[in-house]
Design brief:
eight-stranded parallel barrel; alpha/beta
Length: about 350
């Protein structure tokens, strides 16, 4: 049982990380969000070939240009990473249309049966990571942010770090070296990207899974409106407006423990943070917050608070196998979240 307080947890983890690596303030220094007018405004609404036009449609719906588009590498076979002609040119064309546009690219660490973090750490998959790095730079996406092995703290992906923290860190390092060496002239940035479950990892586990300042430019953490703590979700059928407000606040505080921990870890290493996935959630088990305008308002306040040093945020605007997230009216969608959608357009569209 992880019983340390949040403040004590942060102090312990920061101390452990500092003992593992020396801070390198040069890496990622040009990403300092304090130099931006606001955090980069991003969205995910499916991938190429339709993804770029979807991003533009979302911008029109929200009333604000999109500066950052989210995309995911294929994850069926390693060979797919050597043939990204269906994906890279489309996103490169989108990025060239407006100055300042860039993409954030999620890259799996392990893909095929039998792949292991230990083998990855020894460079077994470097040729595949190098192919992705070359494809990004050759397409002109030289400033892409690469989320290698995202949600490393969970147990739902093959590259879960649980029980294999040092192998995970070694795999991350090997992937970064391969991508950098493939095209040394590139300016790819690399994100160490957790879920809000990071709060439940011990300081020692977190420190062991950290690849080091030389390899990490951005600390990322996902932040969906979902919770299982008592007195949060599901919302009772007889829940009054005050009941909903109180329970949604409890869920927010639960989720934000991981976000605050990530923010403070990043600050200890002079790195910015990112919210690479956030979204409303309507779930079949009721553990999502539903049409929660307060969640949208709180997220807007957090990402726009300069002291949090948020580089970018990406709304996950699709309905997926895990439930509904889509806030926009794209694809003829009638969103399940009309109040939250109005709040999103009011706040994020007006930045």
């Amino acid at each position: 049982m992880f019983t340390l307080s949040l403040r004590a947890s942060i102090a312990c983890v920061c101390s452990a990380l500092a003992s593992c690596v020396a801070a390198d303030t040069q890496i990622g220094s040009h990403l300092d969000p304090l130099e931006l007018a606001h955090p980069l405004h991003g969205v995910y609404h499916w991938d190429a070939p339709r993804g770029p036009s979807n991003v533009d449609a979302f911008a029109a719906w929200s009333g604000r240009p999109i500066e950052l588009a989210s995309a995911y590498a294929p994850n069926s076979t390693w060979d797919e990473l050597h043939d990204l002609g269906w994906q890279m040119p489309a996103w490169a064309s989108w990025a060239r249309e407006q100055p300042g546009r860039r993409i954030v690219y999620a890259l799996p660490m392990l893909i095929e049966p039998g792949d292991t973090l230990a083998a990855c750490a020894q460079g077994a998959y470097d040729v595949h990571f190098a192919a992705v790095g070359a494809s990004l730079v050759d397409a002109g996406l030289t400033n892409a942010i690469v989320r290698i092995g995202w949600e490393w703290d969970g147990d739902w992906f093959a590259w879960s770090s649980r029980g294999h923290e040092r192998e995970y860190a070694g795999c991350f390092q090997s992937a970064v070296r391969a991508m950098r060496n493939a095209r040394p002239e590139g300016q790819l940035q690399f994100e160490w990207s957790a879920s809000d479950d990071i709060f439940w990892r011990t300081p020692e586990q977190i420190a062991a899974a950290y690849p080091g300042d030389e390899y990490v430019d951005v600390f990322g953490v996902n932040a969906y409106d979902v919770s299982w703590v008592p007195n949060s979700y599901p919302l009772p059928g007889t829940c009054s407006d005050e009941c909903k407000r109180t329970r949604r606040e409890t869920a927010w505080n639960d989720m934000m423990r991981g976000v605050y921990l990530t923010r403070d870890l990043a600050a200890a290493h002079d790195k910015p943070i990112a919210i690479p996935e956030w979204g409303l959630w309507d779930r079949s088990d009721g553990n999502g917050g539903g049409d929660n305008a307060d969640y949208v308002a709180r997220m807007h306040a957090f990402v726009n608070e300069p002291s949090n040093r948020v580089l970018y945020q990406v709304y996950f605007d699709i309905d997926y196998v895990d439930g509904a997230h889509q806030i926009s009216n794209l694809d003829g969608n009638q969103t399940l979240f009309p109040n939250a959608a109005a709040k999103y357009r009011e706040l994020f569209g007006g930045d």
